[in-house]
């Protein structure tokens, strides 16, 4: 969790879909009670009250598919990820954690399994979460949330 002394995630790399983006800590939006998300299409939000990627439980990273007036977001091509693709998270201590995608799922917003998604126990899992988009063309899709689940990480040190 954010108040632990462990390394903090700083960058997300997903070669399969051309993603390289900064990770910023995010908490809870006081007006909605839901996870706060980046206010731009360039950053990824890490739910800082949950596990750090690679720690036990489900670490949650959220970003936009697109935002009205800003264009395509970091997770614009998230739906192209497939089992076996690799996700890399860089940390402020110079290490990286590599995660293998093992599943992709879409939930209705009102059926999002928050007890699983924000789980603080069990094997380390990285969950990438987004909504269907916020532009007027995507209103019918906005009630859906996509999720990418990964296997436990393989750690390595950056050189």
Polypeptide structure, described:
It is a single chain. The protein has one helix and eleven strands. It is mainly beta and 159 residues long. The longest helix is centred in the last third of the chain and has 4 residues. About 9% of the residues have low confidence.
Structural descriptors:
11 strands, eight-stranded mixed β-barrel, 3% helix, globular, 159 residues, mainly beta, Sortase, Chain: A
What topology does this entry show?
Blueprint: E1 9-14, E2 19-26, E3 44-47, E4 58-62, E5 66-67, E6 71-72, E7 86-91, E8 95-108, H1 114-117, E9 125-131, E10 144-150, E11 154-157
Parallel strand pairs: 2-3, 4-9
Antiparallel strand pairs: 1-2, 1-7, 3-4, 5-6, 7-8, 8-10, 8-11, 9-10
Helix content: under 10%
Helical stretch tally: 1
Note the run of SSEs as H and E.
EEEEEEEEHEEE
- The CATH superfamily turns out to be Sortase
Low-confidence stretches: 133-146
CATH topology: Sortase, Chain: A
Count the domains: 1
- Sheet of most strands: 8 strands, mixed, barrel
Estimate the mean pLDDT confidence. 80
Beta-strand proportion = 35-45%
What's the CATH C level?
Mainly Beta
